[in-house]
Amino acid sequence: MSTQNHNALFEALWNDYLAITPDADAIHEEFKALGDDIIINDHIALRTFNEGAINLENIGSHLEQFGYKAAGEYHFEEKKLYAKHFQHESDEDAPKIFVSELLLEEFSAELQMFCRGLIAEANWNIRKDGLTLPSRPWGKITREAYERLLEESEYAAWLAAFGLRANHFTVSVNKLRGMESLEAVNQFLKDKGFELNTSGGEIKGNENVCLKQSSTMANIVDWEFNGGKHPIRSCFYEFAERFPMENGELYQGFVAASADKIFESTNAA
């Protein structure tokens, strides 16, 4: 049973996300000009490590406090990730939450050692203060550490720099009044000068898998490292169009092959 307000959770995640994703606010303004005053969020995504107090299992337990339960699981062998998505038990309009974790044991000893240092710091802080979203439960890393992680895993580098925050929010194309398809959304965004993720094509998925997705490339922001600021990619905005399954209900899950390419929206410039 839900004991905490999931709307307050999403408000905190949204405000944190907007602070480092100026494209999202700009895109909202463009959609408002077309008559979409309220943008419905399909889902958000969080990244984490597969060990300690911040692993997927513990984040899932945290989300249960807000009325969420696991509804699907996904494997990403190339990127060495495991993921689940969570849906709200009683509020059908509540955004889904996609949580992925890095499989540390599949990486080099150097990456494991560094990331386990962050996890140890997180464990200590969470024992003291509890798990909070959004948060980065460890201190700032150096730019040099970020660059070393980037050589082996973009996901690990992003997570070490940014922590437990919404990696992206997602516009529900089905709920837009000013646009009728993901293709129209993409063309509109390109016409307005936004950069789209073209890995695997601008549109990932199709009607056969009941889900089409696209996304901007993450904004480049001056991020505060231990030692000074440096421009890196932060967060991005996704767009999802869902289609009915054979039973007539809209598909509510995710497609691993498409999500694999969406992850690349934060790839280094």
Automatic annotation (TrEMBL):
Report the enzyme's class at the first EC level.
Answer: oxidoreductase
- What is the required cofactor set for this protein? Fe(2+)
Q: Which Pfam families match?
A: HGLS
| Xref: SMART domains | DUF1338
Keywords, A to Z, come to:
Dioxygenase, Iron, Oxidoreductase
Q: Which InterPro entries match?
A: HGLS
Q: What is its EC number?
A: 1.13.11.93
Spell out the family assignment given in the record's similarity comment.
Answer: Belongs to the 2-oxoadipate dioxygenase/decarboxylase family.
This chain belongs to the protein called: 2-oxoadipate dioxygenase/decarboxylase
